[in-house]
Amino acid sequence: MKSIISLITVFAGLTTATPVPAPQTDTTAAGPYHISGFFASKAHLSSYCRFEFNITGPTLSGPVSCSAYLDTGFSGATWLAYVYQGVGNCNSDAVTWTFWHPRGAETDRNDAVFNVTVDGVKGTYVVPKEDIFVNLNDEGNPFDNDVSYAGPREFDITDFPVEE
């Protein structure tokens, strides 16, 4: 009986002990990520988008070139294509990236989200909707338009959200 009471006492002490926080990844050591030559555009009278950029960062040995050329699909007339994880290419396995431009009407476009991950540490850059240019050349033909990124070609990614 004594041993059962001892076990209960030990167990009760463990459950009331102060929890040890999980270790956090030091994201400050990885960033900022410097982006240069950023280009994103949907080809005229086409549903294809092209993305290109270079990235440098503290853990990268030199500039890394990244790109993607993909179809926006039938309904991608007034926004840039989604670049899902693994679709964008880089000349370094340490770098992956995504681009998410939520759909909206021509008069109510949304900000886009550009994520770059280097060695497992994800940085996020919000592309303001004002930096995405949409020109409807023929209002009767939603595919006769131009969609392109018109913001700065060079910027730093400094937001490193902690994912749970």
Report on this model:
- The protein is mainly beta and 164 residues long.
- It has one domain (32-157).
- Helix content is 9%, strand content 38%.
- The protein is built from one helix and ten strands.
- Strands 1, 2, 3, 4, 8, 9 and 10 form a seven-stranded antiparallel β-sheet that branches.
- β8 (132-136) and β9 (145-149) form a beta hairpin.
- The longest helix has 15 residues, at 2-16.
- It is elongated.
- Mean pLDDT is 80; it is low at 4-25.
- Residues 1-17 form the signal peptide.
- Keywords: Signal.
Topology as a string of helices (H) and strands (E): HEEEEEEEEEE
Count every beta strand, where a strand is a DSSP E run of 2 or more residues. 10
Q: How many helices in DSSP terms?
A: 1
Low-confidence stretches: 4-25
- Percent strand: 35-45%
Multimeric status of the protein: single chain
- Span between termini: 43 Å
Q: Nearest-angstrom radius of gyration?
A: 23 Å
* Mean pLDDT score: 80
Structural class: mainly beta
Give the domain tally: 1
- Range of helix content: under 10%
Described by strand count, sense and barrel closure, the largest sheet is: 7 strands, antiparallel
* Overall morphology: elongated
